[in-house]
Amino acid sequence: MKINGVHYRTIWAEADGRVAIIDQTQLPHRFTIQTLKTLDDAATAICDMQVRGAPLIGATAAYGVCLALRQDSSDDHLAHAITQLAATRPTAINLRWALEQMRHALQNCPPAQRVDQAYQRAAALCEDDVAVCAAIGQYGLELIQGIAARKPAGQPVNILTHCNAGWLATVDWGTATAPIYQAHEAGIPIHVWVDETRPRNQGAALTAFELGHHGVNHTLIVDNAGGHLMQHGLVDLCIVGTDRTTASGDVANKIGTYLKALAAKDNGVPFYVALPSTTIDWTLDDGVRDIPIEQRAAEEVLWVNGQTADGSLTSVQIAPDITPAANYGFDVTPARLISGLITERGIATASRAGLQSLFPKPTTVDQPASY
User: Fold this and answer.
1) 331 included as an active-site residue
2) pTM given for the model
3) Cβ-contact 209, 174 below 8 angstroms
4) pLDDT digit string (tens) for 132-154?
5) Does the domain spanning 2-127 belong to CATH 3.30.450.20?
């Protein structure tokens, strides 16, 4: 995607082996490139959400293994790196998947060759992610084209998205935003309702930032305005992302997604989830019961970050000193509320049969390990 007319990916390896990322904690007010030099740098970038979004977390973990092997390419250090990185975020399945891919590629490789092999495998995972997201965009574009064809000429297709499942959550294109960007490139009038998404305001800070810089018409709304818009016919389509998808089609996404799905169901608005197949956890069936939900620091709820009138960045407290806060990072939307799952191989029904019609049961290598 483009920032000020320049194409960027969200992560890349430098010639000297260090890894560059866009520090998302500085957005939308500062566009900062951060350099990762060590395993600890990569782990911190994931924990502190300098990078976030399931596919990008996986890519960062893969490069984290590379950085670890630059320090020590032994079997023990490889195992240590995978264990440390696997513990950084509990909900996104891509993290575990990417680490298993790296383990498989490196475990039988002589230590002297591991660094080169690791960088090659991490780069390949990134290229695969770009191709997968582009394919998701093509299949989702068909949905947008169908809606556009039924609208009066010149009227935009109004799409609601929740949080950030965009370019900044992947290596390029995004998942939920890939169909939006491809429709924009195809000349289809598009307007996106962007949920701000408390507590970290990633819709406001990230989705609005990238849509605006790429020239896509959009409007920021408060987290809970979506139901009102749907009641008044102002939403044609919902597309969200997912950090983990069960074999039965349940999805875990940013907290509040479930409420959007309920509102969409009540108002007859199509509700689609865009996902790479790497987010499917074939070991789980009941998302509400089985998907671990990350609980983050209370400070993210009690404080907000922003830019003051003089351009400085600051944090302000918005709740009483004596008030505790619960900070659930995700919720689970049951398959029964989902119109379809947009994948790199097509659009599946949100069901085991629907997913297996596109993706046969994964092999041992593809199956995430338990850590």
Assistant:
1) no
2) 0.91
3) no
4) 999 999 999 999 999 999 999 98
5) no
